[in-house]
Amino acid sequence: MWSVDPDSLELMTVALDEGHEKEHGFRVVARGEIDVSTAPQLVAVMDELIAQGVRLVILDAADVEFMDSSGLRVIVQSGTRLSEAGGRLLIDGMSGAVKRVLEIAGMLEQYRATT
Predict the structure, then answer these.
(1) What is the DSSP pairing of strand 9-15 with strand 2-5?
(2) CA nearest neighbour of 49 among 79, 19, 10
(3) Which of 28, 52, 78, 91 is the most exposed place for a label (fewest CB within 10 A)?
(4) Domain count, the chain
(5) Residue 7: what pLDDT?
(6) Structural domain boundaries enclosing 68
(7) CATH number for position 35
(8) What is the Cα–Cα distance from 43 to 41, expressed in whole angstroms?
(9) d(CA 17, CA 62)
(10) Which residues have CB under 8 Å from 25's CB, separation 6+?
(11) What pTM, to 2 d.p., does this model score?
(12) How far, in Å, CA of 62 to CA of 29, rounded?
């Protein structure tokens, strides 16, 4: 289900494999802009998944038109929390905007999904 924010970020979560309780993962599909006004929405989704014990989150960022340091902060903090719990955050389908921010931060390879 899409959750629509008036500040132009839409998020949808999709279970990857419901057959493995401990190793289950989710794809979070993002559309729009991840900035200071919309990052809290992404934080809420990521926090909920991590609290549920999800160990693999794939952020589909193909349709993210803009991302600033607020979006980078969400990625780094969520990635760290998942890593500390034995999990992983990957970014798949990076838009140019997301790729540029991760390149500048020196984190592109850390989060890039190899598909």
Answers:
(1) antiparallel
(2) 79
(3) 52
(4) 1
(5) 60
(6) 2-16+23-111
(7) 3.30.750.24
(8) 5
(9) 21
(10) 15, 16, 17, 54, 55, 56, 57, 58
(11) 0.85
(12) 8
Residue 59 CB partners (closer than 8 Å, separation 6+): 27, 28, 30, 75, 89, 90, 91, 92, 111
* Residue keyed to tokens 């999709």: 14
**Conformation bin of residue 112: beta by default, left when phi > 0, alpha when psi is -120 to 50:** beta
The contacts of residue 52 (CB under 8 Å, 6+ apart) are none
Mean pLDDT per 10-residue run, the chain (115 residues)? 61 74 79 95 95 94 96 97 95 94 94 78
- Token pair for 114: 């190899």
Instruction: Kindly calculate the radius of gyration of the chain based on its CA atoms and give it in whole angstroms.
Output: 13
User: What is the secondary structure of the chain as a DSSP string?
Assistant: -EEEETTTEEEEEEES-TT-TTT-EEEEEEEEEESTTTHHHHHHHHHHHHHTT--EEEEEEEEEEEE-HHHHHHHHHHHHHHHHTT-EEEEES--HHHHHHHHHHT-HHHHB---
